[in-house]
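I am hoping you can look over what I have pasted underneath with an eye to the fold:
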Amino acid sequence: MIDIIQAKNDPAKTFKSPHDVIDDKSISRLDKIDILHRWAYDEREMAVAEEENMLATTAEGKKNVLDEILRCLLELGVENDKDRPPTKQG
């Protein structure tokens, strides 16, 4: 069983991929959505930092998982958040 608080605070440390969130039967749908939203936010923050040259180095071979996260959210029936104002973080 995973630590749901840890998963919500740092999804990339808890799960190998966004699909692992979807596949985990011990997590409620709402918690999966929260975890994936956090993960998407974290990925966007990293992209902004890279864009602004705030990261000294980037991990070799690290792929951006934002597209996979968004596909997983769609699998859970979550459409784009139209009520949120647009920002660099989404």
Remarks:
- The two ends are 31 Å apart (CA to CA).
- The mean pLDDT is 83.
